Amino acid sequence: MASSSALAPAAVREMQRDLESQANALSKIQKDISKNHEVRKQFTIQVGENELVLKELELLNDGANVYKLIGPVLVKQDLAEAKANVKKRIEYISAELKRMDRALKDLEDKQNSKKESIIRLQQKMQAVQAKA
Amino acid sequence: MAKKGTATPLGAVFSQEETRRAVARVAQAVADRRAELGRVQGFFADNAALVSLVQRLPDELSHEIMVPFGGAAFFPGSLIHTNQLLVLLGDGYYADRSAKQTTEILHRRGMELEAQMEAIKATISDLEAEAKFFESTAAEASEGLVEIREEYDEDAEISSSKSDASSSYGGMSDKDMEHARNMARLAELEVEENESGNTSEEDGDDDDDDEGAGTSEDGEENGDTSGDGSEHDNVSFSASVSGSAGNNQSHGSTQLKSALKKLGGKDMLKGASLAPSASTSKINSEVQVPFRKAVSFKDDNRHVVSSLKSPSLPQDPNYPAVSQLTSDRAPSRDRNIISSRQKAFTGSIVEHDDSLSAIQPPRSNDSGKAVSDAPSRPVSRFKMQKGGR
């Protein structure tokens, strides 16, 4: 009995360390997820803005003067060129958004598995403690 | 007929603290959305102001203005080219536009903002509904509501409903016997009642009944919040009345069934295996119902037993007539509501409902329900009626 009670604390300590590291990993994943959400929100807003711009550009007649703000100066741009640029930008951001979706899904899967393993660990710990 | 189900107190499933946290979280989300809505509304107002400004600018060839110089100083100047605007389209793109074209752009932008506002409002209302749900769940849990779950076994349900039907249409002799016994029991009860006058004993019993059955019933009506008490009373009252009305044969049979159902439901709730008794009652079903009900409030939930011991029958005719009138009126309204509610809960109840409804739709459900928690108020009224007779 004495030997088992001496053994148990060591096992419990080990488990606690393990649990701690797992919890850290989980919180890191959660941080990543929230970061992903932030960035995605920004991208979504940008897509919306670019779509608005594209709509306005489509409405301009061919002779209209279009400028692009580059740094501190306004640079005159061809309308067709501006349209192409905006379209390309929208495509790029949409692709980026899709990529982020996939990443988010990955992260969530990881999060769930981490949660499960933590719960299992906790149960094991409880069992050991109950025995001791 | 022995059914297995689980009755879990809601409080055990959702801890108070957790529900409170959930409510707080949703409230926070709602607040965020409201802030966002305020921001967008600010944009919208700015946009409207800008539109009116742009519309007025070309009215004059030039405007005398004070030009801001740095943060702190102004000097006089004038706006010229009042119909030439460099409009930011977004994302660093600008376009030369006339005032009229600019207002068009601004209008389109305003529409966009409006759509955004609508979306945010919709989200807010969704979140509020969620918050309400959490709150009501918390309230229910704290009130000790019970969630009742029961596996739906199709075969069992079918067989049980069949037995119901067969019993109701079954041999006349059985029925007659049962009827006679019920009547006898009724008479006995009445005598007792008369003797005891306005006994308080029954009321006491009923209260007990209420506590036991009341909880389970709450569980059944899970969706309902606290305010049910009064409704229950109504229902149960109607049930007891209708039970007495049962002399009318056809009427009686329906009721019987409902009572049976009720019995079955109750059994499940309590987890007790009343299978044998239930089956007996089924066989005798038609006439018996009324009795059982009458008995039930007196004997405090031991319907089964009471129904079995039924003596010689008495003077039903006038008695039932009075009660029937009442039963018809009062309960009918509540019935529909209840029946729909019940359907949502247990398969068994639903089925009974259907079979019953064929014969005599709404009543059955009601009366069945009523039996379970025969409350004090119904009883007293019941008595009053009897006295009037």
Automatic annotation (TrEMBL), chain A:
**Coiled-coil annotated spans:** 90-124
Specify the superkingdom. Eukaryota
Gene Ontology terms for molecular function: protein-folding chaperone binding; unfolded protein binding
The protein's matches in Pfam families, at most eight in alphabetical order, are given as:
Prefoldin_2 (PF01920)
Q: Which GO terms describe its biological process?
A: chaperone-mediated protein complex assembly; protein folding; response to cold
Read off the Gene3D superfamilies from this record.
Answer: 1.10.287.370
* Keyword terms of this UniProt record: Chaperone, Coiled coil
What protein am I looking at? Answer: Prefoldin subunit 6
Which species does the entry assign this protein to?
Brachypodium distachyon
Automatic annotation (TrEMBL), chain B:
Main location as per UniProt: nucleus
Quote the biased-composition stretches of kind Acidic residues, using this chain's numbering.
190-223
Region (Disordered) residue ranges read 152-175, 190-262, 306-336, 349-389
Q: Which SUPFAM superfamilies match?
A: Prefoldin
User: What keywords appear on the UniProt entry?
Assistant: Coiled coil, Nucleus
Q: Give the family per the record.
A: Belongs to the RNA polymerase II subunit 5-mediating protein family.
For this entry, the protein name equals Uncharacterized protein
